[in-house]
User: Fold these one by one.
Assistant:
Number 1:
Amino acid sequence: MKLLIESSPYAIIATDIKGNIIVFNRAAEELLRYKAEDVLEKIHITQLYPPGVAKEVMKKLRSPDYGGEGKFTGSEFKVVDRRGKEIPIHLSTAIVYQDGQEVASIGIFTDLRPRLVMEQELQETHLQLIQLEKLRSLGEMAAGVAHEINNPLGGILIYASLLMEGLVSDDAKREDLGRIIQEATRCKEIVRSLLEFARQSGPKLELTDVNRAITDGLHFLENQATFHNIEIIKELDPSIPPLWGSAGQLKQVFLNIMVNAADAMHGRGVLTIKTFFARDGDKVAIEFSDTGGGIPEDILPRIFDPFFTTKRVGEGTGLGLSMSYGIVREHRGNIEVDTVVGSGTTFRVLLPVGYEEAPAQEGAGNP
Ligand SMILES: Nc1ncnc2c1ncn2[C@@H]1O[C@H](COP(=O)(O)OP(=O)(O)OP(=O)(O)O)[C@@H](O)[C@H]1O
Ligand SMILES: [Mg+2]
């Protein structure tokens, strides 16, 4: 019997009627990180629970409402290990009677941590699926609308330009016409990014030097006024291998993230860009850290949603991150965000290495 208890994969703890521990098996040692000899007859059962919990367990145990009097068929609680860390467990417990008298109680504890980790992973996968689905249906709608709007917009631009050409250089109407052309051009740009967002084909794959894509993007940005007062620190690992991907699309992703960083810093701060091997070397991480204001918790879950923006009309369409997310997912990668309000944000793009083998070029080369 003793051997059976010792070998149980579940932690088994028994106490005498006063709550002194009299059985503490090997799994209990592992769960609570005590040695049996330090616990047996030395520690009171209440010390293994957070304050008040042992009492609650005893109360339920004596009540007929939780699986019968003297039995308690299970509920989730926390126990406290030797270092004071709380561990979520599932507990089933019973009072041991002898000749109608309570003589001891016995509890079986199951560690819930592996289950909780699994549940969290499941939930994350679920959220990612929802996000992808949202992107897909929005992409379809956006593509439809964008195609429809493109032609009339082209018409407006052409006729406005023709009118402009027919006006003498000091005509008072030139300014109004100029505004029409300017605004229509902006519409065209929005339509263009919508169409890009809705690209239904997969990325065109080529061996892409990630460090190079970053440096190219930076060259472009450093000439923009918004970057003039931003210090850029580069820590690019030269040993990361070229990845199968679309250089153009990845560059677009990096640009989006860097422009967001500059916006968050209102043109003044430090942007740190790192590339390195991550997750045991089977992924390459590209990390962009800014010293901006961070992202408040309530908007964090929405930043990858299409059209979500906190910027003023005309300053952002809210497509940057959703497009980037779509592209990175097509590259079988992921984007992670760490943010601290008031001190800054890190966007981490993770891409799989697997460069020896080109993935199937599904749909590549299509417009
Ligand atoms: N580095 C960052 N720091 C703080 N907030 C950020 C950062 N990056 C993104 N955000 C928030 O996420 C929102 C969505 O970003 P996203 O790039 O998708 O759209 P946008 O920048 O507003 O517009 P667009 O990129 O289409 O011009 C931003 O409006 C901003 O509120
Ligand atoms: Mg943006």
Note: The CA atoms of residues 205 and 270 lie 32 Å apart.
Number 2:
Amino acid sequence: MVHEAAFTEIDHYFHQGYLTAQQAENDAAEALAILGISPGARILDAGCGDGRLAVRLAALGFRVTGVDRDAAQLERARAAADQSGISLAFVNAPLEEMGDIGIFDAALLWFTTWGFSDDSRNARVLRSIATRLVPGGSLALDTLNPIGVQSYLSKHPAPVVTRQGEDEQIDAYSFDLVSSRLWTNRTVRKDGVESSRLLKLSLPTIPQWEQVLKEAGLILDSVHGKEGSEFTPDSWGMVLVARAL
Ligand SMILES: C[S@@+](CC[C@H](N)C(=O)[O-])C[C@H]1O[C@@H](n2cnc3c(N)ncnc32)[C@H](O)[C@@H]1O
């Protein structure tokens, strides 16, 4: 079994039912409401993937830079920008080493982009973003709530199957209490070929987040439920807002 984290073309393929234009509209609106920023603000879309948020935010008048290490996702993002006639910057780089990409009023780590690497690399990603925010600039970090995830999995232990025609993705979840990580054993059967990966997503508790963010030069400001809902212990997803010192 290979241990890796990237959201690759195959993950994109099985997520197409979720990655709709309407979902992207909703996510962009949710992120903007949480960040409370106005057009003209500079946004770093960290791990922008196929650009579904970056392109929409740029179309609304934000000055957006999308960064991603995956060339295939960036190709999709550039094509989406071209198709919409929108001009924005895309940078093909790891978030840990983004080079001279400028300074930002706000940053996004959206759609569980943070947390699949080891602890030191995850910390470097946050530091790298924090140093590119103006003092008081905010990071919106869309992740999962470890308490809600454990409670849900205790009631719904069965693997989750996603189908695309004859192809299928089977996610078997377990929560590792020692590392506070959600393990996903992801098996994919596509075009008659089967492969498996083990994804390990770091899901700190809120007090642990306060510490992780502090070490990166950020202060936890607020915690939100998803899609405008209130954050509760049962929330599956959550969005943290952290401010740069
Ligand atoms: C789950 S996708 C989310 C994409 C986008 N944020 C969205 O909302 O659709 C995660 C993306 O982040 C990128 N990514 C994750 N960790 C990264 C890192 N350390 N450096 C650069 N890109 C990263 C992956 O290549 C992938 O395209």
Note: Residues 6-7, 47-49, 52-53, 68-70, 73, 94-96, 110-113, 125 surround S-adenosylmethionine (CB under 6 Å).
Number 3:
Amino acid sequence: MTVDTTGHILDVRGVQKRFGGVVALHDVALALRPGERHAVVGENGAGKSTLMRIVAGILAPDSGEVLIDGQPVGRGATAALDAGIALVHQELSLVPELSVAENIDLGNCPTRYGFVRRREQREHARAALAEIGVDLDLSEPVGRLSVAARQFVEIARAVARRPRVLILDEPTATLTPSETSHLLGLLGRLSDQGIAILYISHRIPEIFELCESATVLRDGHLVARPDLADITGDELVDLMVGRELAKDLRTERRERAPGEVVLRARDVSAAKVRHVDLEVRAGQIVGLGGLVGSGRSEIVRAVVGADPRTSGTVELRTGDQEWTPLRSYARAVRLGVAYVPEERRAEGLALGMTVADNIALPSRGRLNRLGVMRHAAMASLAQDVIGRVGLQPPRPRHEAGQFSGGNQQKIVIGKWLAGSPRLVVLDEPTRGVDVGAKAEIHQLVRELADDGAAVLLVSSDLPELLDLSDTVHVVRDGRVVGTLGSQDATESAVMRLAAGKEEQIV
Ligand SMILES: Nc1ncnc2c1ncn2[C@@H]1O[C@H](COP(=O)(O)OP(=O)(O)OP(=O)(O)O)[C@@H](O)[C@H]1O
Ligand SMILES: [Mg+2]
């Protein structure tokens, strides 16, 4: 496919990139006019992040070139930054111990005689935050901020460099709807100033709201470069997956008759959790809605025993009339609790281990006989799970760390499907997962409930939360502030409860 390059600020030509046997990018071109708002879309593993990292000089291509104003950009991230290309990463790259101000200035410090001038640094950071319309304490260590706030610090850092091309790799995955519209408004204004925006997201409505044009990648190939005014969301999805899938994605929600109470939590308190009561029945999906930072993750962590509780009891039904207290996370896992955490890279996956080994971890007990892992059983388990979650590429012997972001999430979910969990706790299970895989994961969650598992779900994706849950508890400030049945759970009802009176950014 050839791309007309007249009047372009950015030109990417003939980019090839291979990782061992995997061709991540195959002769890909990309061109942007000043102020153009351009989406890069494709399924998990299509090559989006790889292409962006090459444009930003973080990764060297095997061949091909990146030009700004017709001039080749030198190798390396610094050269790309100097040429005006700034990247906001998919996995955040801030230093948790450093303050907001220090992070915004990272690698961009006003120095004199080798000293960082703190006053200048703070002024600079203050201006950058003001520009993006976000109010944060400049001296707060970034590690103490919510994920959403960290995301805005990362964006402030990129904007502070006055880039000519601003790349954002799934920036809204951790944002609430109001934070997302704040960001989209900001990006619109930056593009009016002539900054070209390269925007990666799996959320189709967002892409249409912000972008004029898109590059569609499929298996590392550039398959289309549509003007978004000319096509529908379903047509864009069909281009991404290469078949008519969009209409298969709509699933009917089914009424389920819940069984006995499986999880019983009474008066649970912990850091950021205040006196929470919860019950989940067999075959029931209970959703926790609320803003990012409202304490939903803390509630589920306290429930499964991943974080210490300061009060309350949590019990799991382990027999007809038998209840077992959940005192520690290790115990919970032994009793059949499956927990998919929010921070999948840190907690959910052993990145250096193979897919097959990761999948076998929770099922160790079953697979171990006389202390010897049954390799054949392990291999067939891995094959089964890989098929069920649609892992790409479907390679059980590859290290988990080599998979794209969305595929890593599939491995985390897949490893819990292998057992037959009594209670499944999912925290943002489809963050960063592409449309097709998301529908597959939703189906898997429903199947788990249909097979009798009790499911506790945290999701900031409102359509997902409303679609899957039989009951939604809305959380604010670590408390349940309202409960909605599937009939009255609407997006606005959840958001009203979640926001309390006033709604604010970060
Ligand atoms: N460091 C690496 N080592 C080996 N393979 C890699 C590495 N980085 C990426 N890949 C492979 O390159 C391909 C493209 O990955 P990439 O991360 O660019 O996908 P993506 O489109 O960003 O997906 P996602 O939507 O899941 O973020 C995938 O097959 C991935 O497994
Ligand atoms: Mg990616």
Note: Residues 19, 22, 24, 42, 44-50, 90, 393, 402-407, 434 surround adenosine-5'-triphosphate (ligand 1) (CB under 6 Å).
